[in-house]
Amino acid sequence: MSDTDNLCFDATKIDKLQELREHGVTAYPYTFERKDTVREIRERFAGIGHEKSAEEVSTAGRIYVVRQHGKTIFADMGDSDGKIQLYLRKNDLGEEQFDLFRQYIDAGDIVGVVGHVFRTKMGEITIWVDRFELLTKSICPLPEKFHGLKNVEARYRQRYLDLIMNEDSRETFRTRSRIISLLRQFLFERDYLEFETPTLQPIYGGANARPFTTHHHALDQKLYLRIAPELYLKRLVVGGFDKVFEIAKNFRNEDIDTNHNPEFSMVEIYEAYRDYNDMMDLTEGIFSYLVEEVHGKITCSFAGHDLDFARPWRRLTMEEAVREYAGIDIHAHSVEELRAFGLAHCVEGSESAATRGEFLALFFDHFGEKHLIQPTFVYDFPIENSPLAKKHREKEGLTERFELFIAGMEMANGFSELNDPLDQKARLEAQDAKRRRGDLEAQMIDYDFINALGYGMPPTGGVGIGIDRLVMLLTGKESIKEILLFPQMKTASPGQNEPEPGQNNGEE
RNA sequence: GGGCCUGUAGCUUAGUUCGGCAGAGCGACGGACUCUUAAUCCGUAGGCCAAGGGUUCAAAUCCCUUCAGGCCCGCCA
């Protein structure tokens, strides 16, 4: 495969680079003494008039547009949080430097400038450049200055270019960074400890999902990329850390769509001596704090919905949700009647479901989820699909588990953590039996985890919050690809995904 | 897995209905211009119309296959 299939280098720009070197110009110097950012200059000189400032400024950034006017040049330069106009004159720079800029500095290049600030006749705050230095020569053409980079696929595949060109995209990822930072701050202020647990796991667990597999050569052992950090974080609670959390990348071998990426971020939080009611309170606290910090108010709009995060939020049991949205009382009917109801309404899975609990979950998924627009906790899940949640203290066949729904999306999942080692052993054995029967999403038995419970885990509440969906919500982006810097995309050009000769690609 | 839609120059796109020389703007390159800002003016180059096959005197356009992407549904937390 030739270079030109993969590279967008511009022959003219490479020629310019070569000529610059012949002129003794260093195209890729090592440093530049930047004393001011664009934002600082804009703030400090907000009141500047047409007279040049006495004070000298020194800043650096990427050139976006060059407007040549014979013996003067205007250019727009931007750094990570702003753009500013440059003004260069042949009189000031001297013929040699001026011609160097005119000939060789293009949109896309990164330069450092030293000069004074003034406001042009048209009112634009501008740096009157005394001297400049090429800091990085760009040899790829920049997209068009006015329309920018719009092509969705190119924006995802070449995110760096998207970020260079689209301020809206930069703003989205600034917000993402801020959300994660605020989340940490919220938890640190409440004395939670942040830990990192293994991503490569010999036994996967903590969720129902199909894992990615890999192989460790020296150990000659199969390993899985984690589908959840849950079982390791609970070991920490057993070990005596009462308030822990992890912001974890999880990996699930599933299809990709507007709400799912194979690797995604989640915060999982565990706290001893708390139950699922406390974790619902905590979840409310986190979301309402973030909404208020990011939006400056307790509401936000998403996908055409006006969402109100003022506490307390609606809480209803799964039975109540099914009664309200499916119009059927689970307990008033036999399993046969429930099946007939399910079949009549084309509820997926109705043929094989065998218990009230299974029908409860099926009916909720079918009728309930899409109606839950305003923040709503649904709680008390059937035991059948909650192998890590504690049995309900009063209700037979249910667990103390909740999920949070906002705008029809599942945003969080938590429970009173199962800490009875014998119960946990039985439930994981049941999962493993399903797995051996071919259920690709059922869990394995982690005996070491069961053993840890055997030493005694205090009563514990836990919750996992999907960070990507949280960021979608707070940035108003309806596709997960818009809020992931590098969403998973199928390899575009043939040959790029093939293993190097003589190497094992690590797949099982 | 199913449905709908998209792919034309570096970027943004017209042309596809109804087959008839592949067009524009920006960008690039050369030239003019000392307060412009989507600068302006003059000139030049740049295309295997996603890939492959078919129908036709003639295909960007019609048909088939493939690739990549978007949206919706299914599966999935």
From TrEMBL:
Keyword Cytoplasm in annotation: yes
Required co-factors: Mg(2+)
SUPFAM superfamilies assigned to the protein according to its UniProt record, in alphabetical order: Class II aaRS and biotin synthetases, Nucleic acid-binding proteins
Annotated GO biological process: lysyl-tRNA aminoacylation
Gene name tied to this protein: lysS
GO cellular component assignments: cytoplasm
GO molecular function (one): lysine-tRNA ligase activity
Cellular compartment(s): Cytoplasm
Cofactor binding notes: Binds 3 Mg(2+) ions per subunit.
InterPro entries in UniProt: Aa-tRNA-synt_II, aa-tRNA-synth_II, aa-tRNA-synth_II/BPL/LPL, Lys-tRNA-ligase_II, Lys-tRNA-ligase_II_N, Lys-tRNA-synth_II_C, NA-bd_OB-fold, NA-bd_OB_tRNA
Organism of this sequence: Methanoculleus palmolei
Positions contributing to Mg(2+) 2 binding: E410
Pfam family, one: tRNA-synt_2
Record HAMAP family: Lys_tRNA_synth_class2 (MF_00252)
Quaternary structure note: Homodimer.
Record keywords: Aminoacyl-tRNA synthetase, ATP-binding, Cytoplasm, Ligase, Magnesium, Metal-binding, Nucleotide-binding, Protein biosynthesis
UniProt similarity note: Belongs to the class-II aminoacyl-tRNA synthetase family.
Protein name, as recorded: Lysine--tRNA ligase
Residues of the Aminoacyl-transfer RNA synthetases class-II family profile domain: 173-487
Amino-acid positions noted as binding Mg(2+) 1 in the UniProt annotation, renumbered to this chain: E403, E410
Swiss-Prot/TrEMBL catalytic activity: tRNA(Lys) + L-lysine + ATP = L-lysyl-tRNA(Lys) + AMP + diphosphate
EC number in record: 6.1.1.6
